[in-house]
Amino acid sequence: MFEQWMRSFFLFLAGQRLLNRLAKKVGLHLGARRFVAGESLSSVIQVAKQLNDQNLLVTMDHLGEFVKTNEEAEQMANHCVKTLHEINHNQVKGNLSLKLTSLGLDLDPEICQKHLTRILEVAEQNQIFVRIDMEDYTRLEKTFAIYQALRPRFSGFGLVIQAYLYRSEDDIKRLSTWKTNLRLVKGAYKESAKVAFPNKSDVDENYRKLIRLQLAQGNYAAIATHDPQIITYTKQVVKELNIPLDHYEFQMLYGIRPDLQQKLVAEGERVRVYVPYGEDWYGYFMRRLAERPANVAFVLRGVFHRKA
């Protein structure tokens, strides 16, 4: 019960724009630096290369969720293009992740699609994969619509499917038409019980079902988890279905379970680290605190250590 309350509390804080603006002024303090690889592009490139040196792949995400004008959306698109060029220039073994709200999805879906088209053109030229992060339920159909519109032209981009949504199994079957490369996650937004499983055990069960479904359909699966039981289950399915190593990967968040990341690499698994950066880190940080009480404990230790 306490964990559910804590999750709801931090998810509520994640959506507070005033706190987001204040966080930008404060900078990466109070533990956020553990989960966010700096505020500049140069800082994330440096971190990405260090992870590559450890035989870890990366996907880089310039954080930004609360664009209020078309000009801000264009600036975010420009930054994505710049990031792609820097990935190529520095020979980083990595992809780009982005949120469509940062490209103006809530302002004008047509403008958002225009920005994404430009990004995908540059990504294709540089042979870099682009992952569209899935956001809350209210943006799901808009995201699918843009994907469906651009998929006939571009193949080097994919989506995220969230296991806590009732509809996700049907969505995976629907997306199999395009052989969609999917990142499979449990889900990090607060959703109504009308659209999402309220109980963790049901989410876990559905997650396993979705992993098997995506792999059985022969489509690439990025299993985003730090859960050893889910990892073990995935390995069992891979062995049972005789899935090649280049048809799936494990993904983990920057700053969380680096020991497990290295263990999987040593076992010969493909592991990709999701590396976020930028000044607009607040919402992402709050969702990480909502996910695991251990993350909150880490931050509190950091606060008292700074005061000591």
Automatic annotation (TrEMBL):
It comes from the Bacteria. The lineage of its organism: Bacteria, Bacillati, Bacillota, Bacilli, Bacillales. This is proline dehydrogenase. FAD binds at M134, Q162, K186, G187, A188, K200, T225, H226. Its EC number is 1.5.5.2. One of its GO terms (biological process) is L-proline catabolic process to L-glutamate. InterPro entries: FAD-linked_oxidoreductase-like, PRODH_bac_arc, Proline_DH_dom, Proline_oxidase. Substrate binds at K99, R287, R288. Gene3D superfamilies: 3.20.20.220. Keywords: FAD, Flavoprotein, Nucleotide-binding, Oxidoreductase, Proline metabolism.
